[in-house]
Write a structure and sequence with these properties.
The complex is a heterodimer of chains A (about 500) and B (about 300). A two-stranded antiparallel ribbon of chain A has the order 1-2. Chain A is built from 21 helices and two strands. Chain A is extended. Chain A is mainly alpha-helical. In chain A, about 75% of the residues lie in helices and about 0% in strands. Chain B folds into two domains: about 5-50; about 90-295, MetI-like fold. In chain B, about 70% of the residues lie in helices and about 0% in strands. Chain B is built from 13 helices and no strands. Classes of the chains: A mainly alpha (about 500), B mainly alpha (about 300).
Amino acid sequence: MEKIKSLRKYLPTALWVLAILAVYFLLRVLIQPYSAGISLNRPIVVSRLREVGLFVGAIFLGIALVELYFYQIFFRAPRNTWSGWIIRLFQGLIALVMLQLVVMFFDLTDLIRLPAGAVKDFFWFPSNAVTSLQKWAIGANPTSKENASLFVALTVLLLLGAIFGLIQWLSGPRVSRVGLAYLLVIPAFIGVLFLIVYPFLFEIKLAFSNASLGTQATKNASYGLVYGWENLKTLFTGNVAKDAKFFEVFGRTILWTVINVTFHVSMGMILALLLHRPMKLQGFYRTLLVFPWAIPTTIAAMALRNEFDLRYGFFNIMLKNIQTFFANLSDQVTLLSPVFSWLAANIGPVSWKQDPFWAFMSVLISNIWLGIPFMAVIILGGLQSISHEYYEAAEIDGASKWQMFRNITLPLLRPVLTPAVILGVIWTFNKFDVIYLITQGGPQEKTDILVSSMYKAAFQFYRYGFTAMFALVIFMILLVFTIIYLRVTGGLKAATE
Amino acid sequence: MSRKNPIARFFRWFFFRARGDSPFKRLMIHLLLIIACAICVYPVLRVVTISLRPNDTLLTTSLRIIPENATLDNYKEVLFGVPDKNRRSDFFLWLWNSFSIVMVTSLISVALAAVSAYAFSRFRFRGRSPALVFLFTTQMIPAGMLLLPLYVMLARLKMINTSLGLIIAYSVSSVPLTIWMLKGYYDTIPIDLEEAALIDGASRIGVLTRIILPLSSPSLAIAFLFSFMGGWSEYLVARVVLQKNDIYTWPLGIFTYAQQFTVAWGKFAAASVLIAIPVMALFLYSSKWLISGLTLGSVKG
């Protein structure tokens, strides 16, 4: 009986594994005859797996060590005075090594530059010690470099393990309720520190430098308030990427954001209202309507770029057809001939790539097309959460459809709509992949927005110091917007309560 | 008079039905929705059309959905290359690069977030509110803003042109977002369950591993999916970090088709279709949960 139970429990998993294996082998057999033309092969896969596995292993090992250290602080209490002293000693030592490692990392990545000599030697001591240990291992047994690294890693781990074991042995448990919370938060804390705080500090430092391609990024760069002022001055009076001016681009960014969000919300609202009723084919429509959201943006943008082609793109083919249609009409219908010939003269293929106005229109059309389904789906979700009873009561009171929309739907939709609009504004403000993929900001940077100009300044013109200042200014603009938003909506209370 | 006349009766029924929407209105709604659907689907269909065109008629002003002399040559070339001319297909290589990089990013961020979000949701420790406000602020940071310092940093660490560099770069936006989202999920799990378990003598870790993680496994899956979707078709960051052909992710890869001396629209379209079909299928299948993730993760205004 027990056996059957456990069999039934694990059967689905086993079947899944079998199915996946079967698909894998089937694909292999099918692809085998074509393998000569495929550049992906087993060594590439294996080497990537090893690289990534080592990386993940290193991260988890590092986090485990830090966790252990904090565990000793929060969860262990020394048994008596002398053991307390020993524990404090080791804790101090480990903290010192951690500090040394962090400062060394800063030095390595050029956030700070330690003067060569005693200070540098002090902070690089752990690294130098490990290196010399490795050299000694190679010298003692000249087999291979990998073995030596393994030996060093094991030595360090054993040393740390011994220290932690000693502390564990010397101390007793301590009751702490929030200690666990800190232990749980530490991994994410380290991650955010490394991924966001550190780059941010770096950015501030870069903003006050003259780093560029000429100075080989940070290698020969000089730092100082003068450079920061210089960068700021260039930003507001000089050229942001190549020859566009800041306020021109800023104005376009606002235009871009406002037009996009307006269309997203209004069209999304219309679609949601159309869909929100008992009707046939609703699921079908919903599936088709989220296509622009579901298709990967890169693909969509590239495909749309193709459609804005001067001769072979969809839009110009259609415009051309309309033009010939009116031209024929003006030949045949003599009565309204001047009207049709005027139309034929004024409607026609447009140069989407050369004309700044139409280039901007092309990115706007693309981004609006891409963004509507998201808003429609969000608004539809909000509509569905509104109870029917309100509408029934309003109907009994004789309210019109418009009154119902104005006084029931809109207010009750607010909790959904406000964050969606705010996030929409921020995302659109920052979203430049469509612009970059369709027009690359051209012609003459007439379709660039702030973020795309910044991207270009950094990675096409290599003006690193300037870009950092640019990024800080954009961040300030967004911060001001966010603060105003938080003031208006009553802050983050709901989220942080 | 009109009661007798069948045409007038039909007219009345058609335009002014007493209850619910009149048939005319319903017809208009369906018509509008069909137009909207056509606008949404047509550009996607055009990609399919281009992918089916034979190479000599790639540039045409025809608007037919299934082109004349439709062939699958483009697909064959994208998938399996042309071994006779010693042209190898990088398609699977790009997919593998994308997959391995995005997979590891999502795994790391979900693993980090799953434990720390629990602490944010259940403990009132010192520094909690500032940390949450900080996490929220990171969502305001433009994606491109930290790219420059990250780039310089990765260059100093010799991580440009490696998958590890891109994993780090993607984690920048993925980790805070996932923490924020999962905290929202954990908040919706009733605390009574845990209290009962604690009274029965379970440890906090036991509560986390035995109750919270199993209960929130669907949301972990959504957070994973979110992180995965975020990185999967990313182009701009990848372009900065990866500059060598053999490490390209697929968005960079298919962009090379468009940058070649003769733009290979057919190959581009075929590759796009091959990638888009599974992605869109997954997306349409999971869109319901993705939306709930978005609304939970965002600020409750």
